[in-house]
Amino acid sequence: MSGPIALSEINPSEAVEVLNPDGQGGFVLICEHASNRIPAALNRLGLSDEALSSHIAWDPGARAVAATLSRDLDAPLVAAGMSRLIYDCNRPPHADSAMPARSEATDIPGNAGLDHPARLARTLAVYGPFRDGVADTLDRALAMGRLPLVLTIHSFTPVYLGRRREVDIGILHDSDSRLADAMLQVAAEDDETATLRICRNEPYGPADGVTHTLALHAVPRGLPNVMIEIRNELLADSEGRDRIAALLARLARGASAILSRQPALDKAG
Description:
The protein is α/β, with parallel strands linked by helices and 269 residues long. The chain has 7 helices and 11 strands. It has helices spanning 12-15, 49-53, 62-72, 116-143, 178-188, 212-218, 238-260; strands at residues 16-19, 27-31, 77-80, 102-103, 106-107, 149-156, 159-160, 163-164, 169-172, 198-200, 225-231. It is globular, with a radius of gyration of 18 Å. 46% of the residues are buried.
């Protein structure tokens, strides 16, 4: 059903989207699960409309929040243009979860039994342009003398495999906790967060393999970085999305101010 994707069938501009590339605000935003788009050649992977609109195909609300942050923080945003079921851009090519045959409780017929040529074709057509878009955006900022803070924006389902999650916003990090520490410090002092459960490395953490983008792009460049996970119930309408975007902007700006006061040699720990 799936078959290899011919590289000519996917334009790089469809695999990655860069908003506000010249943003000067001191941040770079990334949204790996921004879209639920499936190339026509893959015949919807054999999935229903309901499945393709659910969290298994993308992170509902994440792109909208990231785009608002891009505007409010004057930050470049690099967003994936394809469904995470075609290729999960927050996973390395060798990971089974990069092209999952099953997501939560749903089998993905179009991903069953993918051979090496099919996996390679998807990697080159989808992951490659996204990876390069992130790298080019960060390197451009560095070449201009800026040291941006890196934030990846995600949403998560409140119930996973029958288990209800109690967190509202997760602040995740890999080996570099500087930005996460600072954002959690700001959150503890923000009045609005009293109504939200904001936790470190929940509902996922580095052991779950979810910090690939941070580890690949931000940590080697010495850039403070964080992965934001938002309960998707909070993003169900424009009012909720705007509220969360405003909150995250406050946390990001406050964290940036904290980090700017730290010694320049205080690198990732």
